[in-house]
Amino acid sequence: MKNELELKAMVKEKYGEIASQDGGLNKSSCCATDSDVCTEDICNIMSDDYSKLKGYNPDADLGLGCGLPTEFAKMKTGDTVVDLGSGAGNDCFIALSAVGLTGKVIGIDFTEKMIDKARQNAEKLQYNNVEFRLGDIENIPIGSNKADVIVSNCVLNLVANKYKAFGEIYRVLKPGGHFSISDIVLEGQLPEKLRQAAEMYSGCVSGAVDKKDYFKIIEEGGFTNVSLQKEKKINIPDEILLQYLSGPELNGLKQGNTGIYSVTVYAEKPAKDERRCCGPESSCC
């Protein structure tokens, strides 16, 4: 497996390529990085159907998600919403329909081409209360206590330091604010060959952590009222897995207790933080 900086560069390159493609070709990010293997029939294996949600715009839907966090995010008129890993703006535009003209939506993405695509979409739709900022989720370019709601869709699994990412989410949320995040988690242990495959990392799989550890990271970050809003099992096609595993290894994986799941998780930042954190560098943050 590559180191953290190499992984970030790889993910940025991968998603930059996706941003340059037509929408119909963008369904491969969370299934495989080899377009010769990822046919139209097997690529869209993680994303959910956004088309029935108010505010949906097909130009902004690149098929990169693994859930519908904006459907569960409990947004209301006037809220400030931050979308981490905003891509072409899909969740941001849906959030706009919930917060109205008095609200604001900020999309954060660390891929320049995605930011450019999202800004073009916003301009085309003539939205004035949405903005897109280039930035890293481990160092969110937003001041402390600014967001009422944070959403994210199939992005935290791509972040190597998940403790730092959730620490930043805590910092940016207002006291009493909350998040709704869709992500990929595991039950059991992935085979070593899958865990070491950089391509499976950018495909949202090998960067995922155990489900229990995921909830532990959130709870240790100081969040309360943590709950599972939705869960679905992800079945990676054999054609993809056989790029990394032998036939017997694949059979062992399928017969074992390992599972890959999409989860949508809700949690709140307490209205009053009893931990006496003194800033973003504090150990408890």
Topology:
Elements: H1 4-19, H2 40-43, H3 69-72, E1 80-84, H4 90-99, E2 104-109, H5 112-125, E3 130-134, E4 147-153, H6 162-172, E5 173-187, H7 192-195, H8 198-202, E6 209-210, H9 211-220, E7 224-234, H10 238-241, H11 247-255, E8 259-268
Parallel strand pairs: 1-2, 1-4, 2-3, 4-5, 5-6
Antiparallel strand pairs: 5-8, 7-8
Helix pairs in contact: 1-5
Uncertain regions: pLDDT < 50 for 5+ in a row? 24-43
The count of β-strands is 8
Q: Which range best describes the helical content: under 10%, 10-25%, 25-40%, 40-55%, 55-70% or over 70%?
A: 25-40%
Helix-strand sequence: HHHEHEHEEHEHHEHEHHE
Quote the beta fraction: 15-25%
Q: How many helical stretches?
A: 11
The helix/strand class is alpha/beta
Name of the CATH first level: Alpha Beta
Report the major sheet.
8 strands, mixed
Total number of distinct structural domains: 1
The CATH topology, please?
A: Rossmann fold
Shape, principal axes of CA atoms: globular
> What Rg do the Cα atoms give?
18 Å
CATH superfamily placement:
Vaccinia Virus protein VP39
- What is the averaged pLDDT score? 84
Query: Could you give the distance between the termini?
Result: 28 Å
CATH architecture: 3-Layer(aba) Sandwich
